[in-house]
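cron nightly-structures :: item 1 of 1
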Amino acid sequence: VRHVNVGSARRLKVGERSVLTAIGKTSVTGPVSVGPLGLAGDEQADLNIHGGLQKAVYAYPSEHLAFWQEQRRARGVSLFDEALPPGFMGENLLVEGLLESEVWIGDTLHIEVSSCVLRVTAPREPCGKFAAVMGFAVAARFATRNPAHEVAAREATRAESGGTVTCPHEL
């Protein structure tokens, strides 16, 4: 675990509409409690799509951030080619060395020096809010249809047992 990220639901302008989203997360320091509905201090805006008992915590491989930074640069939506900050992808846990090709639904992730155990329940399905945050309309479709870069499956997990998570920690 390289970063632990939480966020509050807030309004995002998508075209002419204003939608409620909690995709924007910020990195926090110190221990964060993990319970059945996710990390303390974290919100999800639409529990029909994200969050709840089966999708309480989202993990995302840091290895993919350079790919998305390049996609944004190529489309002219990244003015200064800045690195994507932790939480930009909507992830609660920015992890390193835990690629989708090595994780299966049903796998358990044990947080070192914690009683916290997360179970992988599903790949994350990017929504239209993801495309709005990325800055180009086809980002969500691109994420699910680009297996060469394995960017589709941010791991959705449920908390098998509560505990705390902080970074850096080994899984």
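cron nightly-structures :: done
The longest strand covers residues 117-123.
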